[in-house]
Amino acid sequence: MKLINPGPSRAGWHRLQNVMQCPRKYALATDEKKTRRATMIPSPPLIKGSLLHMGLAHHYAQRGETQKGITESEYYDPVDAINMLVDLQPKAHKDAWAEWVPLVTEVLLAYTLHWSNENWLVVDNEKELLATIPDKERDERYLYSQRVDSIWQDPRTQKVWFVDHKTSFRITSSTIKRYELSGQFIGYTMLGRALFKQQFGGVLVNFIGWPQKNGLPKFERAVLGAAPHALKHMQKTLVHAERVIHDHKDIPALEWPGAHHENACVTQYGPCKFFDVCRWGGMK
Which has the closest alpha carbon to 242: 148, 126, 128, 136? Predict the structure, then answer.
């Protein structure tokens, strides 16, 4: 049986987003990964999102098999996969992850019931896409990658869509709009057009709203509005981020410039994991 890895791609937008949000955050995270130091337990929204992504990945992997006439699945059932992701966490983190399994399982089952009559064809799932981005001024080429949560085809139009699963407490017009200029989604469009040409339909955001006062989750799907100017200059943005990495790579992480901006140091998910490191320089 196969367990899907729905984690980040090898050279993706999240890495470059960290650089542009705060160069020091990127450097400290890279340092931490190299030394394999113990990390903080992720915030509850990140844990819940990761668990639900794992369940959805296996749900659509099995759905794709069914559409192809495969009766014996190669993949673990979605609920089993969610529990296996908990088991993969460091021992000190497992209880924090396990706490959310009942809720995530409930929402996943409600999701499959809500969309039980959908007719999308599953083309691929958790697909890593690769591109080479040229930097002509420096005569360099940079690897860029993105992992698409799911790739679906509309059987009526034959258009192919990239699908990204997003969890949220509320689903509003502002929730949707915040992604229109996100580099993650502009990158999807850039790669989708390069790969599928005229057959590419666009990017579909698959929203899952966590249960609120009425105890029921909400589900909505939205096609992102066009951002032609941002798309036109996306490669310049990627090159800029790569240059920041290159130009600071030989200095200690704590000496990289910091953003020192309230929206970078404390996000909707809580304080940056390196908040105290930036305050005290790694020592109290």
Answer: 136
Whole-structure pTM over 0.85, yes or no? yes
Question: Distance between CA atoms of 45 and 34, rounded to whole angstroms?
Answer: 26
DSSP letter string over the chain?
Answer: -B----S--TT-HHHHHHHHH-HHHHHHHHHHHHHT---PPPPHHHHHHHHHHHHHHHHHHHHHHHHTT--S-SB--HHHHHHHHHHTS-GGGHHHHHTTHHHHHHHHHHHHHHTTT---EEEEEEEEEEEEEEETTTTEEEEEEEEEEEEEE-TTT--EEEEEEEEES---HHHHHTTTT-HHHHHHHHHHHHHHGGGEEEEEEEEEEPP-TTS--EEEEEEPPP-HHHHHTHHHHHHHHHHHHHHHTTS-GGGS-----HHHHEETTEE-TTHHHHHHTT--
Residue-wise pLDDT tens digits, 148-173 = 999 999 999 999 999 999 998 777 77
Report which of 26, 54, 20, 74 is spatially closest to residue 249, judged by C-alpha positions: 26
Please give the pLDDT value at position 3: 94
Instruction: Determine the length of the chain.
Output: 284
Closest CA to 269 of 83, 16, 21: 21
Contact by Cβ (8 Å): 266, 279? no
Q: pLDDT under 70 in the chain at which residues?
A: 35-39, 282-284
Cβ neighbors of 242 (< 8 A, separation 6 or more) are 16, 133, 135, 140, 142
